[in-house]
Every structure is written in C-alpha cells, then in structure tokens.
Amino acid sequence: MIYAQILAGGKGTRMGNTPMPKQFLPLGKEPILIQTIEKFVLEERFKAIIVVCPADWVTHTEDLIHKYVTDSRVVVITGGAERNDTLMNGIAYIEKTFGLNDDDAVVTHDAVRPFITKRIIDDNINAVMHHAAVDTVVPAIDTIVRGEKDQASEIPIREYMYQGQTPQSFNIKCLKKAFNQLTNAQKAVLSDSCKICLLAGEEVHMVRGEVSNIKITTPYDLKIAQAIVEKRVII
C-alpha cells in the first residue's frame, strides 16, 4: 500500500506575530494546509492521507477538513515534539491501523508547500517502489558556502549541490529500521528525514522538484505565494 503523510506539526515561529501556525493561514480563498491536502486527494493510489498536526490544533484541523475536503481517506493525528517525531507518529498510526507489509511506502510532504504538482507526486510514488528512500530536489542556483561563526570553511562545487524539497518518500519498514538504529545524539540533530536513511547506510534516490514548489515559512514567502495564487486566478 501507498500512504501520504502531510506534516503539519510546526508552530511557525519564523512567520512572526500570527494568530495561528503558518499552515492554517489563508492563501487566496483557502488555508494553506487545505490547498496542500487537495493536491494529494487527487491521487487515487493513496490508501490513506494522514495529516499530523500539533495537539492543540487537532480540532481546528478536523473542522477545516470537514469544511473543505470530502474524502474519507483524510485523517488527523497528533504530531510530536520534533519533525522526525511527527513523522514516526504517522508511521505508528499506519502500522496500528493497517498493519505493515514489506512493500508499504509513505510519501511525506510539508503542509506549507501547497504548489506541489501531480508530476512530483507521481515521480515519488514510482521511485519509492524501487528505492528505500526518495528525496525531491532542485539544483542549487546560488553558490553554497559552508561555515561557522562568520568564518567560511568550504565552498563546494555547485554542480554537485541541490536544494532539498518535499515530498520525501520511504519504504516504511526500511525507514523504521533505520530510525531505530540511530543513537539519541543522532536523533537530536536530525534536520532532514532522508538523513535517517543515509546514516543507516541506505541509498537515497533523487527526483526532480520544481522551483515553484516553495515552502511558506516567512512573511516574505507568504507574499510570494499570494502573488502566485492571484496570478493563477487572473489567468
């Protein structure tokens, strides 16, 4: 089976003084989260679409879904303290509700990337059928500088640099095994789910994302997203 998991567990601190987490903010006529979910509802191959959100916002999320989405596959569960705790909460729900088979896979996506395309979802599904882990990336446009405390230490060759997006997709049993092999120290510094598999020695396959597949994290990002939505309405 193939499952989708929408990661909506963030509190949105970089968005500034807002009345709610960024995934619930309006974008055009609908909340950001709803626009993201609607892209996944169009894919019939998903057995379930699991939305993982902060405990204090479960009722609000369920109310939004009831208002905008008519698909019984969409369920809401509580997230964890960190991103990868949220990811594993979704995996635990899948195992408890449906059981796990060797070829079961999950396509995970940021709730605040509402401009994901059908092509990106298709490429993730097709790739995760043959690879334990799949990352969506775009080639880096700017030069990447590695450094610490205002001191540059390395400038890698840009040709080999990519910017990570989501979805990130996984064979569920491989992801669970890799996560359980990590030490607490490794888990504490994880900032990317695909790194779970890399640290366990698994290969991570890359598929092409889109520049338009932006993550709405700051007020500037939200302005760009609003402009995209308004332009599409005009067209």
Mean pLDDT: 92
Over the alpha carbons, how many angstroms does the gyration radius reach? Answer: 18 Å
Terminal Cα span? 37 Å
Element string (H = helix, E = strand): EEEHEHEHEHEEEEHHHEH
Strand-residue proportion: 15-25%
* Spatial strand sequence of the major β-sheet: 5-4-1-6-10-7-11
Q: Count all strands and give the number.
A: 11
What global shape is seen?
A: globular
Which stretches of 5+ consecutive residues score pLDDT under 50?
A: none
In terms of structural class, how would the helical and strand content be classed? alpha/beta
Q: What is the overall number of helices?
A: 8
Please outline the major beta sheet: 7 strands, mixed
Quaternary structure: single chain
How much helical structure, as a percent, in the residues? 25-40%
Describe it:
This protein is of the alpha/beta class and 235 residues long. The strands form 3 sheets. The chain has a 7-stranded mixed sheet with strand order 5-4-1-6-10-7-11, sandwiched between helices. The model has no long low-confidence stretch (mean pLDDT 92).
Features:
235 residues; alpha/beta; two-stranded antiparallel sheet; 8 helices; 11 strands; 25% strand; globular
SSE blueprint and pairings:
Layout: E1 2-7, E2 26-27, E3 30-31, H1 32-41, E4 46-53, H2 58-68, E5 74-78, H3 83-98, E6 105-110, H4 118-128, E7 133-139, E8 146-148, E9 151-154, E10 162-171, H5 172-181, H6 184-188, H7 194-199, E11 204-208, H8 219-234
Parallel strand pairs: 1-4, 1-6, 4-5, 7-11
Antiparallel strand pairs: 2-3, 6-10, 7-10, 8-9
